[in-house]
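Quick one - inputs below.
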Amino acid sequence: MQTPSDAWQPTAAFDNLRQRAALLRTIREFFYQRDVLEVDTPLLSHGTVTDVHLAAFSSAFSHSETGKPETLYLQTSPEYAMKRLLCAGSDSIYQICKAFRHEGAGRFHNPEFTMLEWYRTGFDHHALMAEMDELLQATLNSAPAEKVSYQDVFIRQLSVDPLTAPVEVLQQKAVECGLDMNAGLPDDADTLLQLLFSLYIEPLIGADSPCFVYGFPASQAALAKVNADDPRTADRFEVYFKGVELANGFYELANASEQRQRFLADNAKREEIGLPPLPVDEHFLSALASGLPDCAGVALGIDRLLMLKLGASHIQDVITFPVSRA
Amino acid sequence: MAFYSTNEFKGGLKIMLDGEPCNILENEYVKPGKGQAFNRVKIRKLISGKVLEKTFRSGETVEGADVMDTELAYLYTDGEFYHFMNNDTFEQIAADEKAVGENVKWLKENDVCTITLWNGAPITVSPPNFVELEITETDPGLKGDTAGTGGKPATLSTGAVVRVPLFVQTGEVIRVDTRSGEYVSRAQK
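Output:
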């Protein structure tokens, strides 16, 4: 750690900042070649995410048209606004922007970070995974990616089927792996699966080439379609490379009433665990109701991508001023 | 006592766990993009010395431990307690056998040791990294054998036994690394 007297200094070396600029240029060229339109959507929004595990920053807006004070949320990802563009007929789009999450800083986390998000009309999640593999090869010079289903990777690494195993079996597996929780093991399957995945699978996959994991449990679908052939799973994927969770993508849920149900279920769960319910994004739901073209979308952390490119061990090596110096 | 949230966890923070004061060695924040956040924490229990890995749900709070290190000179033992003194204030503190543990074999009068206090009472005593002690007993080495292949055992004035080269004799003072328990050199005269 530096002494407080040089806390005004950037934490990233200028060479890393030059590499950052070059990386952004490569990404823009990649999408230019594919005729994907760059867009720019608001960072401040009246609606926000209801996800129990995502916390947004909020701010007070005292100059609204109605004259009443309003709460505006800093976006946790540009997903809703970009889907509104898709519903309005934009066709394939991408965006490079700041996203904000009200959570702690760490080796791979800063509350304010740079995100690349893109949507491809006419693509399903498999087609999008193939395109993302090309982007990773173009930016990181990586070997062609490996693809494995969530179910298979659990069976391969931990000999347990995540889609059928009862809670007790997952708890037992956690104990076998050496998990020692301060306040006792969780008693819900999703939290256990997430722990097992983060701690005992993630570090072992994507060591040599990026690893795409698809077919997450339907209970962790977020904004993905439920799989047409196996409704126990969702058409959601994540990308892991060298121990880093790099991206999360969906074959996008287009059904407005199902989307509203998921928001309401989130808010019910929030109340259950003592969190305030949040305003759902009505503009987004109206857009979905008007029709979202068949599409897949993915969000990728640019700071983490640069960390991988440079072999950096801490996010502060690739951003100018981490939150403690912001 | 203060309580700390997982946001405040960092190396060196002293917390209470299972009724025992602990030192946080490493803290890693784990947050899946979709899912609950955790802190994986490597902890040393300060009394048993055990190192373990604990996982906390982010946002949990734990009680802080009133633990501090102090540098004190070893004075003497009365057979039950080991007495130390602060060379600046001349304040004295007695540590029991449990706190001194195995390190008793490195305690030499006037050497400055690090004493860890929990709620004001000594829980561990760490000797200096290097101590100089006299050999009270060792087999006479064979003349001319300086290869020192395996060395030989030597008993020191504190009762510690270390391996020394064959040319080192009873009555000599040697320098020992207390972390490894290994002979370093003959002491500078």
